[in-house]
Design goal:
By secondary structure, this protein is mainly α. It contains seven helices and two strands. It has a domain of 190 residues.
Length: 272
Amino acid sequence: MDFNLNEWLNLAVRWFHVFAGILWIGQTYFFTWLDGQLSAEEQAGAKENPGAQVWMVHSGGFYVVEKQRVPELLPRKLHWFRWEAALTWISGMVLLTIVYYMGGALVDESVANISVGAGVAIGLGLLTVAWLVYDFMWQLPVGRSETLFAGVSLLLVIGVAYGLTRVLSGRAAYIHVGAMFGTLMAANVWIRILPAQRQMIAALKEGRKPDAALAARAKLRSKHNTYMVVPVVFIMLSNHFPTATYGNKYNWEILAVLVLAGWIAAKFIRNA
């Protein structure tokens, strides 16, 4: 057997990355759906049944889920959903390194005459700057309007797509836009959502009412993740269709349109 270590490593990391992503995305959309159902129940029976519940049936059993904004008592064991995001991002960065930073797919002399080192610096720099800009935007007036924020974000994504397709290979440009979204999603979980949850739990343990603003901000970041994940999945699939996507002469325009289409699709999925 011709054993190719690099190929098997590539396959193993892809397998791990895709499966971790399935767990993360599945949980994100499940809780988004669940929260929507519970919110509808709260509104429908706010007077006679303030403790809204959702009944479900799956795999031979019945399940009852109740939402408590301020629980009277913390359970002995509280289930957190955090490692799926971390493992998806880490395995994605490993895959990015194997395929692009070490695998020769990062730069293209027909696009720009830059070194691999310069390409790596551009790629990693983008991930850092994107998070700083995204996070800072929420402290500005633009962050108070969901529509305005989405519009500004789309313009920034278009700018990133255009710029990357002028310095990196088309395939690398696409995947770095996906890595940018993935980094924002993982950072949302670990830098904004989880710390807010810890502060809420600490308040309950001290007998204080949790800050409702923390819950609202954490929920909003989770909502953002449901919008970003649809374009990320498309970008992952685009590797298999070079003529229609990254290899097309209109590659950045196609990416921009499909990111917008992904956001629109996510809105319908969220409301389903």
